[in-house]
Input
Amino acid sequence: MNITELLRKETILLDLTSSSKNEVIEELAEKLDAAGKLSDKKRFIKEIHEREEQSSTGIGEGVAIPHAKSAAVKDPAIVFGRSKDGIDYEALDGEKSHLFFMIAASDGANEMHLQALSRLSTLLMDESFRQTLLEARSEQDILNAVDKKEKEKMEADQSESSSEAEEGRRPYFVAVTGCPTGIAHTYMAADGLKDKAKELGYDIKVETNGSDGVRNRLTAEDIKRADAVIIAADTAVEKDRFSGKKLINAPVTAGIRKPKELLEQAAAGDIPVYEGGNTSGGEAKEEKGKSAFYRHLMNGVSNMLPFVVGGGILIALSFFFEDPVGGEISPFGEILSTIGGANAFFLMVPVLAAFIARSIADRPGFAAGMVGGLMAHTGDAGFLGGIIAGFMAGYLVIGLRHLFSFIPQSLDGIKTILVLPLFGIFTTGFIMYFLVTPLAAVQSGLVNWLSGLGTGNIVLLGILLGAMMAVDMGGPINKAAFTFGIAMIDAGTLEPHAAIMAGGMVPPLGIALATTFFKNKFTKQEKDAGKTNYVLGASFITEGAIPFAASDPGRVIPSIIAGSAVAGGLSMLFGAATEAPHGGAFVILLVNNWPMYIVAILAGAAVTATLLGIWKKKVA
Output
């Protein structure tokens, strides 16, 4: 299928009237809807925005490719829009975008559709082609230019595939690219690497993990022959096959924006050898500022969170079915409590430990971590015991992998399935058998210390926890406070997490109030974003404050810290407590003393809004 079968005259806008990113998305979607390509325009626009939240599709060089694969699309289509003045689309290079291709892929799009959609992304890498589109005078000129360029590209690909590079003459690399949607960035990164490799005189084979599945899959022979491996992906990539190879890990945008740097780094050879132990490809292992400890811990926490949130809310809901006088619970309340507490919450610590170990040692570490975490939970060592079990299991399995390195590669399957899990479970379980009792004593001591704090100290703890939620808005300090709150829920102490949730809701809510009541202190774009922050704050998504803090950190960060500290302190003072670790306003009725809890949150938001109103300067 050709691109021009998806891009038609009725889906071309030569002169966009939009002046902002949101307006462009609305205008292009309206054109698609008018052409009969959408069944639900609002849903499609929502899914386009969800894709933009992952990373901007403004790829730079004046081009933006918003895209979504959605059930709201009746027929796969492309809509083209052009702005001669340019529009700020939050492009990767910071420049205005002039050419917009919105790709609408249906859930049932077949392989031919997906190939045509992805092919368009690669054509836009050519500067002369972009200039032709800018100078086109009519819709037909656009179609002719696309058709001509596509034919040239297909002929070039056929010529390239028919000429095999001679082995050993030039550096040879293999690469894998992938993005969350798998339509545009996946193939642009692949073409960026291939084109730059050709220019530099290197040979390369690129595997793409896109919407149409894995294409150009790397063979064992390809990997064996390669001098280095480049992963440019924001999705999970199976990396065990690259064990023993020099490997570069980067986000998919690096394949588009910095292919030369990636290739030159690979050619220089000054890169680490991959020894196994992590299967995700999207984190870019340039972990400057992020410790391995934090990464492994957050992997455990993020995978544990669904059990905590779902189980905690079910437990809290069960209280509505309990007789407040007699203390008896109804049969349905008993069912809620059993599902949430005896099952979902029961798995919390084992899952935490298992995924910490998996982050460190890959799949062989998972079983050892799960067993160690279960021993911590059943032995009352709690959250602390689970964290220790996860890290211990992961690094023990890494050690075992080196210990059994003498096993021939032909028996790797047996080592992964039998040897490492067997000895990993045994060594982790053996050590945890003796560690559980002292760890349980530490856990009990922490809970007793918190229970023994006087009112003044309780309020100070709430102030500290609330402030921590606002310091880096989703970063390590924020996550440390959140993790502490979950540990306290597991230990049966529910007040700290209520203060933490209040502190996390305040930054976006306070900013939203400031943009409403102090409109002359914010730009139009900030006021629009402020409306969104009402929803983000109510949903306990602290990250909504990040754009405001990034643009004016000296005023915004102190304001939100102050507001969150007030909310956390008041929450503790009022005795608010919750078993629901997430949900914000949606679980507020499940909070003990919820009327005063709302007062605490509103008071903190008011403090933040007032300080912003005082400190921020008027916008001309």
